[in-house]
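Before a colleague's protein record goes any further, I have to sign it off. I want your independent view on whether this chain really folds as the tokens say. The record follows directly below this note.
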Amino acid sequence: MATSQVLTCHIWLVDSDPPIWRQFQVSDRTLLADLHPILQAVMGWQDSHLHQFQVQGQPYANPASPPLEGTLDATTKTLADFQFAPNETFAYTYDFGDGWLHQITVEASQPAANKPAAPLCLTGDRACPPEDSGGVWGYEDLLERLNDPDDPEYEELLDWLGDFDPDKFDLQQINQQLSSQ
């Protein structure tokens, strides 16, 4: 059996401007299906929607009832099975309605010490958009409206979002959530 590796990965919310991204580490022994809750924690999503991976030209999803048409079973593949080359990318789509597309780059791998490492977020920038905010373009519109107190729905938006700060990135909170999984 090959030595377990720790993968250093970069995830970017495609088309976010300014970019919303994270750098994190994960064991290559992680099942693709188990990467989903890790990405939810790393990015700050609430796991309220379906998702799919696109890896090396193949679509993968967790088995569901009914399963997503045309997808392979994400519970049967570890990250090691893909033998990622340095800087190889794959995609993760969360919420097919809003279409949150993420690009994941496997930046590097290194041997794990004695056991596979727990996932760890290393750094990142900006807050995760609120669930159901309409994808990247809906989110951009939402931010513009939040900066316009004359918008007819301004107060309603503030009530919905609470103390949301689009510039906030809380590394400690993310890692606390990862450690409790």
About this structure: The CA atoms of residues 35 and 49 lie 15 Å apart. The chain has one domain: 5-127+167-179.
